[in-house]
Amino acid sequence: MAEMRETAWAKLNLTLDVLGKRPDGYHELCMVMQSVALSDTVTIRQGGAGISVRSNLEFLPTGPTNLAASAAIRLCEAAGRDWNGLEIVLDKKIPVCAGLAGGSSDAAAVLRGLNRELGLNYSLQELARIGEQVGSDVPYCVYGSTMLARGRGEVLTPLPPLPWCYVVLCKPRYSISTPELFRRIDGVRLTCRPDTAGMEEALQAGDLAGAARRMYNVFEDVLPRPVGTAVAEIKRTLIEAGALGACMSGTGPTVFGLFETLDRAWDACTTLRKVHKETFLTVTL
Ligand code: C5P
Fold first, then answer.
1. Which of 3, 28, 131, 230 is the most buried (most CB within 10 A)?
2. Cβ-proximal residues to 275 (8 Å cutoff; 6+ apart), any chain
3. Taking the CB of residue 25, how many other CB atoms lie within 10 A of it?
C-alpha cells in the first residue's frame, strides 16, 4: 500500500433537535449538518506493529480507542483484510471535543482513504454503514456537504448547500461531556425547538439570511453555568460584529457565526481570539 492522504472536514450543526430517548439508550435526533473548510489531514502508511495513531496533539489516544484506528479496524474486518502494521498520522486543526465532529471526520477520512488504497470498492453508502459502528456522526462525515440527519444521526438526506459564506468558529476552554448533556436534556421539557422545515425551505431558496436566522441547537438550553455563560457571550459578540446568525454546534462548546463579508468576519475573529485562543475564520464547503 502506498502512503495515502485524505482531508477530514469539520461539521457544523445549523440545527440540532432531540426528539426523544430510544430503547437502545441513544436519542432520536433531527439535525441539519454543514461541512466547513477547517480540516485535519489524515495520512495512512505501512509501519510498526498492530495499528497505531500519531498526531500533533500528544493527549489523543494512540491505539484502537482513537476513532481513526477504530474505523480502520472495522473496515479491514468487514473486508477480511489484515490491519496489522498500519500507521495513521493525524495533523489536527479541528479543535478536539468541540462539537465539530473532528474525531468522526478523521474516522470517515480513514474509511474513504483505505477503501481507495486497498481497492475495496465499497460505495459511500457501505462505508457509512461501517462508520455507524464507530460513532453516530461518522456516516454523515463519510459524505460531508449539507445533510438532514435523523435517527441516531445515520439516516441521511442530502439538502441544497448553504449558500457560500464566511464562518467564524470559537471554542471556549470548557469541556462538556456529551452523555452528561444528553442526560440533562432528558430531565427537562424543551419549549424552544429549531424550525427544521423552515431551515430546509431557506436552503431550497438559497436564502443565506433566512437559514442563519433559523439556526438553533436545543443543547444551548441545558448547558452547565460557566459554559452557558461563555456560549451566550460568544453569540452576542458574533451578532454584534455583524453575523447573520450564531449557534452552538453539536454538544458544544464551539459557537459559530455566519458572515456575508470578510471584513466583518475578520473583525469578529480578531475580537474573539483575544479571549478564546481557539478561534478560526473559515468558509462553508
Ligand atoms: O455514537 P457516539 O459514540 O458518537 O455517541 C456518544 C454518546 O452520545 C453516546 O454514548 C450517547 O450518550 C450520546 N448519543 C445519544 N444519541 C445519539 C448520539 C449520541 O444519546 N443519537
1. 131
2. none
3. 8
User: Which residues are part of the catalytic machinery?
Assistant: 11, 137
Residue 133 is placed in which grid cell? 459502528
Q: Express each pLDDT in 177-186 by its tens digit.
A: 999 999 999 9
Q: Is 192 annotated as a binding residue?
A: no
175 annotated binding-site participant = no
Ligand 1 centroid, distance to 235 Cα (angstroms): 25
Q: In terms of Cα–Cα distance, which of 93, 269, 28 is closest to 169?
A: 269
Please classify residue 37 by burial: count the beta carbons closer than 10 Å to its beta carbon, then call 0-12 exposed, 13-18 middle and 19+ buried. middle
Residue 31 CA to ligand 1 centre (angstroms): 14
Tell me the three cell numbers of residue 195. Answer: 424550525
Cα 104 to chain centroid distance, Å, stands at 7
Within 6 Å (CB) of ligand 1, which residues are found? 26-27, 29, 135-137, 152-153, 178-179, 182
CA 229 to ligand 1 center in whole angstroms:
24
Q: Tell whether residue 100 is among the known ligand binding residues.
A: yes
Please identify which residue in the block is written with the cell numbers 422545515: 197
**Helix (H) or strand (E) segment spanning residue 273:** helix 262-273
What does pTM read for this prediction? Answer: 0.96
Instruction: Output the pLDDT for position 2.
Output: 79
Within 8 A by CB and 6+ apart from 225, the residues are none
Instruction: Measure the CA–CA gap between 215 and 218, rounded to whole angstroms.
Output: 10
Work out which ligand 1 atom sits closest to the CA atom of 29.
Answer: 21
